[in-house]
Amino acid sequence: MRRPTPSPRIGLDTRTDLPLIMSTLSRNEEMARRDLGVVWHPCTQMKDHERLPLVPVARGEGVWLYDFDGRRYLDAISSWWVNLFGHANPRINDAVRAQLGKLEHVILAGFTHAPVLELSERLVRLLPTGLARCFYADNGSSAVEVAVKMSFHYWQNRGRRRKTRFITLSNSYHGETLGALAVGDVSLYKDTYRPLLMDVITVPSPDCHGREPGETWEAHSRRMFGPMEEALAAHADEVAAVIVEPLVQCAGSMRMYHPVYLRLLREACDRHGVHLIADEIAVGFGRTGTMFACEQAAVSPDFMCLSKGLTGGYLPLSVVVTTEEVYGAFYDDYTRLTAFLHSHSYTGNPLACAAALATLDIFESDRVIERNVALARHMARAADRFRDHANVAEVRQTGMILAAELVRDRSTGERFDWRERRGLKLYEFALSQGALLRPLGNVVYWMPPYVMDESQIDFLADVTLRGIDIACA
Ligand SMILES: *Cc1c(COP(=O)(O)O)cnc(C)c1O
Predict the structure, then answer these.
(1) Spacing, Cα 174 to ligand 1 middle (Å)
(2) Where in the sequence of the chain do the CATH 3.90.1150.10 domains occur?
């Protein structure tokens, strides 16, 4: 929809409070033009936008995003995996608004406030047994930095000075800051920066996409534990922790594995005296079908990193929850210099904590985990429309994440060259149809807000099927 040509005038745009510029462009085009003059966008080759239109979003409501020209887009990726209960959710809005009238922010060193106190108590009650101490930061990568530093520092405080290394899985992702990047393994994000990164031990992922024909997920993930056991046996003396994304390697193209791996890993970490860091930044808060992915293996890590869905997708907040045993290794007279002297300015921000508390309220009052079982089942049924497509090698699902692996030829498994950017074609087609799908390379996935309904999932399946046809042609 194109707006009629505005009459030339300078004034304030009532919807954005931004100065209006004389133009014959649509509102979207005008916003995009100005944006591209000043904003450098995340995870983007900006030159792509010479051709690819930017989508200015005027407002959000539930599962929909609305642009400035009156078009809407179904948010199938929860705005980069953060949104759980829709945009402009009235209950979370109210909670943030109420908090805004009391306290917007306060230093968390030496001071505390009701939202951070209540959130910590509720998280400890919800999390696997043993996780009892909450340390806050303001984004996922920072939470990973905290867990990595804390694990290392724990061993230093305990006199185990040689324990300075970390074990990670191939294809894992833990964020973009240098420490988080170092313990991750997605080469697209990591390779350029290798000279800046600490050296880690990388063990093959239990990802079940690579299983033998006829092999079950469980058998494959169990077999893939072999290399981890060997790495632990060989390096336990110099390793502080193993870091994993429980059940789904999200940024690594939504690769999935069986919970048995986590059970074997917990047992082996205990046996070898190595910490287990569970990065549930993407999979926590119901994404895999349980409140936390670790529950499916009945394990409790030494550190759990949470962010993304923690605030329902409202505000940046992250937390590392650890054990009394870890906490105790830092607790001593100041002059012994064993304290964890790490902080971020916005640590434990009250507005973000208020959004997190409202999010937990919704989980409780709406029995979200139970209701998601039916929605996940419907996602599986809807995906039947492209499950046997000639360009789909595999459709995989863990709870509220469903992914399809696109290939040139299903029968031979031949992959598309990444330079062909098939996923980008699908992205553009989906936008033209009113859906926000953002494939990772050649993997298209759904990671919807939990308030999406069945007819919206059906619409998504229709767009995905036609998108696969067009992107793979
Ligand atoms: C997104 C993500 C991170 C990084 O979180 P940011 O808030 O983007 O820094 C870390 N680990 C996992 C598993 C993630 O999905």
Answers:
(1) 5
(2) 55-88+368-472
- Summarised one tens digit per residue, pLDDT across range 413-427 is 999 999 999 999 999
Class of domain 92-365: alpha beta
Q: How many residues does the chain have?
A: 473
pLDDT, tens digit, for every residue of 377-405? Answer: 999 999 999 999 999 999 999 999 999 99
| Contacts of residue 241, Cβ cutoff 8 Å, sequence gap at least 6 | 147, 148, 151, 152, 166, 167, 274, 275, 276, 277, 302, 303
Point out the ligand 1 atom lying closest to the alpha carbon of residue 308: 7
Q: What share of the chain is helix, strand, coil (3-state, %, to 5)?
A: 40, 15, 40
Residue type, 212: E
Residues lining ligand 1, Cβ inside 6 A: 139-141, 144, 173-175, 245, 250-251, 279, 281-282, 307
pLDDT at 12 exceeding the cut of 70: no
Q: For residue 142, which of 198, 184, 182, 180 has the smallest C-alpha distance?
A: 180
Q: Give the position, in ligand 1's atom list, of the atom nearest the Cα of 251.
A: 15
Measured CA angle at 368 (ends 366, 373), to 5 deg: 135
39 C-beta neighbours (distance < 10 Å), count? 11
Distance 414 CA to ligand 1 centre (A): 30
CA–centroid distance, 301 to ligand 1, in Å, is: 18
55-88+368-472 CATH, one of 3.30.10.20, 3.90.1150.10, 3.40.47.10, 1.50.10.10: 3.90.1150.10
Mutation probe of ligand 1 site: the residue of 78, 138, 141 with most atoms within 8 A of C-beta: 141
